[in-house]
């Protein structure tokens, strides 16, 4: 059962994905007809003026963050006109501020920044922008629109909508279905957005969250939260777990409790989760993607901005200021399409 609300969200998100696809392909399809759009839209994959891009992100203490960093580096290596300067990953906002100040002093052509704390890094990002260095903000937003030329985000609200829509399609005809939720860190806006999207999608098919616990994006936290949930809820029909890294612990708790009367939807898109889905022997039968390509997308966008180019499939003369990536649901039917970009927990 897919509702009008969910359809509207998914159609809008699909439109964004078309833009991102243009970013990846870097050129328009050849039809034999002349291209009447701006000339800087064509041949983005061709080598241009060499640009130095500074990249700084948090410490890779989480599978998803590790994938962010490695994908960004791999993306830069695709281009012979990109020189990537990588700062050591850190969870210390002050250290990251000093890294950005070093990029500014070195006169890089662009900075890709996944801030350990968006608010804390806002001032130094504005400083870079005022120095004429475009900043590409990834995943965690700054607190001022003047701090970034482009912001690349996963769709946290959309993750919730996608998870809720999938559950509605499976059990929406049962008004008494018990739906449980294992969130991430409740104090984070991203967790709040995911829960809000999930509740909105469930409401469209007459369901609601019956039992909810919060974890902390770690294996240990996921196991503890899931154990608490299972002890409190003797009957469950569906679970949405926000994060596949903590999902390793969630599945361990489920196995220890000997429970299998429900199905589970994960979140983020880890290889571990996709292997479980593909096996067909797990309660985990779907996961919602939160792209670990955001850093790589930031590198590709930084290159385009620094070279004065735009997205290949858009008529718009400049790179958009904000790109929100799609949150698709991965199931046994399409898992092979997503495994190549899955990250290891």
The tally of beta strands, per DSSP, is 12
**Whole-angstrom Rg:** 21 Å
Kindly name the structural category: alpha/beta
| Low-pLDDT stretches | 1-39
Overall pLDDT confidence: 88
Sketch the topology as an H/E string, one letter per element. Answer: HEHEHEHEEHEHEHEHEHEHEEH
Distance between the termini: 32 Å
Q: CATH first level of the largest domain: which class?
A: Alpha Beta
By DSSP (H or I, 4+ residues per run), the number of helices equals 11
Full CATH superfamily name of the largest domain:
Response regulator
The domain tally reads 2
What share of the residues lie within helices?
40-55%
Bulk shape: elongated
Give the CATH topology of the largest domain: Rossmann fold
> In what order do the strands lie side by side in the largest sheet?
2-1-3-4-5-11
**Estimated share of beta-strand residues:** 15-25%
Domain Periplasmic binding protein: 53-309
Biased composition (Polar residues): 29-48
InterPro entries: Peripla_BP_I, SBP_2_dom
Subcellular location: Cell envelope
